[in-house]
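quick q for whoever's on today - can somebody do inverse folding on this one?? i tried earlier but teh output was garbage lol. tokens:
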């Protein structure tokens, strides 16, 4: 008996018991569906987080000053001196706080960031309208502001804000630019902010200390060197490793990738258990099928069928049932992934690797759990089988 004949016999047996065959497949369908859906969603989440982290800035290094007291921050000059270090392309110190912004009768609570002209290049922002801060704005403590896209939507409702006057905690500022919409990253919005000159912000917030500095390295190859240099400077400045933290995007990306990768494997493993349960169901039904078809097996052997022919017949039947279940589960998983992507905005990656693993694993489950029933059928004594009712 060749493979094609075995497949034909398997399809005939499946079609003659459609309901039982479907119920047998159901465990595999659910298992493959769960594996495909969960792994695709997990990979999509990893891809989305990775994209957002990379969108925060190229070769970005962040220096955070922690602790309390007068020595728990940097001065403006200390922060800007970091720009002169080897491997550093640009530096953008930041002071921030929560403020209320008003335009006419509209008001909104938002984040205020005081920074320098290099901020857009360091943080990978682009201008949508107008201009960003200029060196003269920093030098003269100008009352000018650049708005994030969310602030514009909340306050101006379709009106061009450039040139308009807003009030930040009661102080008048002129809007000189609007940032392009950037979306969210690390759980927060990049568009719900107002940016003003750092020197103006220090006066407005009554806080002269800088606790965050964004640094852009010249290239990815120089990031580690820059980080080591920054740590040495901060150690001399604060003499306490707990007083500051220096980290780069690569570290954040690696950490997030490890966490999401582990979660994806866990979800895939949990879903894989249901696939194994489906395999046990196939084995049970195939054992029932062997019992029901004992006389048929006896007649087949009496007509000259060999042990390997019976073995291959039942093994192929088990594999076909499992493979068909895997295919249906794959299609359902694909449908769910597409539906979620379309209607919820959730990113899901339906990769060829996931398809291949799901189909191969479902075939393996059918073969593995079909071995025992097929071997039992092949070893039946033809004389005793013919006596069976």
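ok took a stab at it. sequence:
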């Amino acid at each position: 008996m060749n493979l094609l004949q075995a497949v034909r016999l398997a399809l005939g047996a499946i079609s003659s018991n459609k309901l039982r065959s479907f119920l047998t497949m159901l465990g595999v369908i659910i298992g493959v569906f769960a594996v495909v859906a969960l792994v695709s969603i997990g990979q999509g989440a990893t891809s989305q987080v990775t994209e957002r982290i990379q969108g925060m800035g190229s070769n970005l290094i962040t220096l955070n000053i922690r602790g309390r007291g007068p020595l728990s921050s940097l001065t403006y000059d200390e922060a800007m001196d970091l720009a002169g270090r080897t491997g550093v392309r640009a530096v953008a110190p930041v002071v921030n706080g929560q403020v209320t912004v008003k335009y006419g009768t509209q008001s909104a609570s938002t984040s205020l960031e005081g920074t320098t002209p290099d901020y857009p290049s360091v943080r990978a922002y682009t201008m949508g309208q107008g201009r960003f801060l200029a060196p003269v704005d920093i030098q003269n403590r100008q009352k000018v502001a650049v708005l994030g896209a969310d602030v514009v939507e909340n306050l101006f409702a379709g009106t061009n804000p450039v040139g308009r006057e807003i009030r930040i905690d009661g102080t008048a500022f002129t809007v000189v630019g609007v940032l392009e919409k950037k979306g969210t990253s690390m759980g927060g919005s990049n568009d719900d902010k107002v940016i003003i000159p750092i020197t103006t912000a220090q006066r407005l917030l009554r806080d002269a200390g800088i606790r965050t500095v964004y640094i852009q390295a010249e290239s990815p190859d120089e990031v580690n060197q820059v980080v080591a240099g920054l740590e040495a400077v901060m150690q001399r400045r604060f003499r306490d490793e707990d007083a500051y933290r220096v980290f780069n995007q690569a570290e954040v990306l690696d950490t997030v990738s490890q966490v999401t990768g582990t979660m994806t494997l866990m979800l895939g493993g949990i879903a894989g258990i249901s696939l194994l349960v489906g395999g046990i169901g196939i084995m049970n039904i195939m054992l029932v099928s062997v019992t029901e078809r004992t006389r048929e097996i006896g007649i087949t052997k009496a007509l000259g069928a060999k042990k390997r022919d019976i073995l291959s017949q039942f093994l192929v039947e088990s594999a076909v049932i499992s493979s068909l279940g895997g295919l249906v589960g794959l299609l359902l998983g694909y449908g769910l992934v597409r539906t979620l992507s379309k209607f919820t905005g959730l990113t899901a990656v339906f990769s060829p690797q996931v398809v291949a693993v799901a189909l191969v694993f479902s075939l393996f489950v059918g073969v593995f759990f079909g071995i025992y029933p097929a071997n039992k059928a092949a070893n039946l004594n033809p004389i005793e089988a013919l006596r069976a009712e």
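fwiw The first helix runs from residue 3 to 16. also The radius of gyration is 33 Å. so keep that in mind when u check it
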